[in-house]
Amino acid sequence: GESVGLHLPTLSVQEGDNSIINCAYSNSASDYFIWYKQESGKGPQFIIDIRSNMDKRQGQRVTVLLNKTVKHLSLQIAATQPGDSAVYFCAENRDSGAGSYQLTFGKGTKLSVIP
Amino acid sequence: KAGVTQTPRYLIKTRGQQVTLSCSPISGHRSVSWYQQTPGQGLQFLFEYFSETQRNKGNFPGRFSGRQFSNSRSEMNVSTLELGDSALYLCASSLEGGTGYTFGSGTRLTVV
């Protein structure tokens, strides 16, 4: 069935290193993807998004790459900091018709930053 | 500006009871979506409301319902609670849906 998933459930990185979190999606018709960060006790927080007409988008210390050929999405965090420790989700924004959309989330990757 | 406010933050209910959760969206946002988050199933879409109308519904039983008021505030209700309904319930608001979602901190529901 259609789904949005992540390759790794946990990722540990040294402070200052770069982090790469991956995501695979199966709905080739999807045209909008979002990365969220969720800290303990909080709701998902928007990090960065990308539309299917783009291959790459950069934010502050974050970059999202989209490979439509293999239906793969990745989030790169530069110079990872302890405050980056959280669970990261990719989400696919699907058109449900009648002007409505819904987010389909992957399972999440827990990023732990080692000081 | 104020974010998305969900109340209460925590709830403990007994099986068979019903519960109502509230979500106040960001001012000016007309779309409110609800999601259930559990360790096993992750984040799953419940429903979306726009201008007081349910525009979309996820794959949940009829025990899960919701509504939206004229000020865009939304409530969701779960009747005849089951142990498996224990979860973090999140709402997200956006201007008109489709982009720019902002999530609240959620309501943690525990069913005992």
Brief account:
Chain A is built from no helices and eleven strands.
Structural class of chain B: mainly beta
Number of beta strands of chain B: 11
Which band does the percent of strand residues of chain B land in?
over 45%
Look at the structure and give the mean pLDDT of chain A.
Answer: 90
Kindly state the percentage of residues in helix of chain B. under 10%
Q: How would you sum up the major sheet of chain B?
A: 7 strands, mixed
Give the number of DSSP strands of chain A. 11
Mean pLDDT of chain B: 95
Q: Helix count of chain A, per DSSP?
A: 0
Radius of gyration of chain B: 13 Å
By helix and strand content of chain A, what is the structural category? mainly beta
Report Rg of chain A. 14 Å
Multimerization status:
heterodimer
Please give the alpha-carbon distance between the first and last residues of chain A: 40 Å
Principal-axes geometry of chain A comes out as: globular
Order of helix and strand elements from N to C terminus of chain B: EEEEEEEEEEE
Determine the most extensive contact between two protein chains. Answer: A-B, 27 and 24 residues
Report on this structure.
The complex is a heterodimer of chains A (115) and B (112). Chain A is an all-beta fold and 115 residues long. Helix content of chain A is 0%, strand content 59%. Chain A has no helices and 11 strands. Chain A has strands at residues 4-6, 10-14, 19-25, 32-38, 45-51, 56-58, 62-67, 72-77, 86-97, 100-105, 109-114. In chain A, strands 2, 4, 5, 9, 10 and 11 form a 6-stranded mixed sheet that branches. Chain B is mostly beta strands and 112 residues long. Chain B contains no helices and 11 strands. In chain B, the strands form 2 sheets. In chain B, strands 2, 4, 5, 6, 9, 10 and 11 form a 7-stranded mixed sheet that branches. A 4-stranded antiparallel sheet of chain B has the order 1-3-8-7, with no helix packed on it. In chain B, a hairpin with a 3-residue loop joins strand 4 (31-38) and strand 5. Chain B is globular, with a radius of gyration of 13 Å. At the A-B interface, strand 4, strand 5, strand 9 and strand 10 of A face strand 5 and strand 10 of B.
